[in-house]
Design a protein that fits this description.
The protein is about 60% helix and about 0% strand. By secondary structure, it is an all-alpha fold. The protein folds into two domains: about 220 residues, Citrate Synthase, domain 1; about 100 residues, Cytochrome P450-Terp, domain 2 (Cytochrome p450-Terp, domain 2, Orthogonal Bundle), CATH 1.10.230.10.
Length: about 375
């Protein structure tokens, strides 16, 4: 509440309980495990299992889980045909949204809404979305088909499907880390969308489709793509200061058409997004292998300028941008890769919502005219 009135955007309003993740000013935990600990000591397969099943897997459980997810990395032929036939210039997020709707029709548990069936659907979507992004990459770059390697991590297989080739062990590990960091984040806009849809007892694929639609919005997803376009505009570390000051001068002259500097600030983390710090360290390790150190330097210079001027810290999207660029991923696929990770969190929330459901139906604060009587249409004509 602010001045006795509710804040816009449900700011700081707690709308329900969850046991899936805990977001605090100085930490992010998935089912009690700190995100930094998970990023350093677990793979994305383990984290996805944790989110969906509630505990970290044993080696046997992990092997079985990987096998089930990888089995789903071959899309049904009709879905492949439709996605291939859609316009080549269509937004990749629109194609992903359509893919999930199509996949619902071909899921063997399509008409089964039991908890066990929804869990199976969740695992299949992990593999199917990875395969879908691989297909989108082929539409964009013409990269060859790469089949999943049973011994590779989810991140390694996903990166190979996007690039059309296998990468280094470090590159696959870094991809896995980005998926871990993006996997879950409490009641963000897309997750809350999924839970609202799920609360009506709509099916799991409907909830994920709605979540993708919410993530497409530039105020939620897409910031990593915009951040990379900024780095490409800057081009060289020596240009960072001039680019920043030119941007600030433009905004001062055109306050009604401000150009935001993307990748900074967070609704919850007021003192910095610690996920960004975790990924930056991995990006530095990667740059020693790729030789693309200039993107780290550009990012660091711009971050100092923004903090000195605005007091804002980078969020996770900021280092993800130059990390994905180092990995050779097309910029248009940055947000779809976010989907490949966050689907584990979305499905975990849908399973939780179904397990203890009450339809989500908030109230609003009415700000329109007071009670009025309907005047005869002749009187309305007379006032024209």
């Amino acid at each position: 509440m602010k001045d006795g009135k509710p804040k816009g955007g449900l700011d700081d309003v707690v709308v329900g309980p969850t046991s899936i993740s805990e977001v605090a000013q100085t930490s992010l935990r998935y089912r009690g495990y700190d995100i930094e600990d998970l990023a350093e000591n677990a793979g994305f397969d383990e984290v996805a299992f944790l989110l969906l099943h509630g505990e970290l897997p044993t080696s046997g459980q992990l092997a079985d889980f990987r096998a089930r997810v990888q089995e789903a990395m071959i899309l049904p032929a009709p879905v492949q045909h439709v996605l291939t036939a859609l316009p080549s210039d269509a937004d990749p997020m629109d194609l992903l949204r359509s893919a999930v709707s199509l996949l619902a029709h071909y899921d063997p548990d399509c008409l089964d809404e039991s908890p066990s069936a929804n869990l199976r659907k969740s695992e299949r979507l992990l593999g199917q979305l990875a395969a879908t992004v691989g297909l989108l990459a082929r539409k964009i770059t013409g990269a060859p088909v790469v089949r999943p390697d049973p011994n590779a991590s989810h991140g390694g297989n996903l990166l190979a499907m996007v690039l059309g080739r296998r990468s280094s062990e470090l590159a696959a590990r870094v991809m896995d880390v980005t998926l871990i960091l993006y996997a879950e984040h409490e009641f963000n806009a897309s997750t809350f969308t999924a839970r609202v849809i799920g609360s009506t007892l709509a099916d799991l694929h409907s909830g994920v489709t709605g979540a993708i639609a919410a993530l497409k919005g530039p105020l939620h997803g897409g910031a990593n793509e915009a951040a990379m376009r900024q780095f490409l505009e800057i081009g060289e570390p020596a240009n960072a200061e001039k680019w920043f000051h030119d941007r600030m001068a433009y905004n001062a002259a055109h306050p009604e058409h401000k150009k935001l500097i993307m990748g900074f600030g967070h609704r919850v983390y007021k003192n910095g997004d610690h996920r960004a710090g975790v990924l930056r360290e991995w990006a530095v390790r990667l740059s020693r292998q790729t030789g693309m150190t200039k993107w780290i330097e550009i990012a660091d210079r711009l971050a100092r300028l923004v903090f000195d001027d605005k007091g804002l810290h980078p969020n996770l999207d900021y280092p993800t941008a130059h990390t994905y660029y180092q990995l050779g991923i097309p910029v248009a696929l940055y947000t779809p890769l976010f989907v490949c990770s966050r689907v584990s969190g979305w499905c975990a929330h849908l399973l939780e919502q179904y397990g203890n459901n009450r339809i989500i139906r908030p109230r609003s604060e009415y700000t329109g005219p007071p009670l009025r009587r309907v005047p005869p249409i002749a009187d309305r004509d007379a006032t024209e």
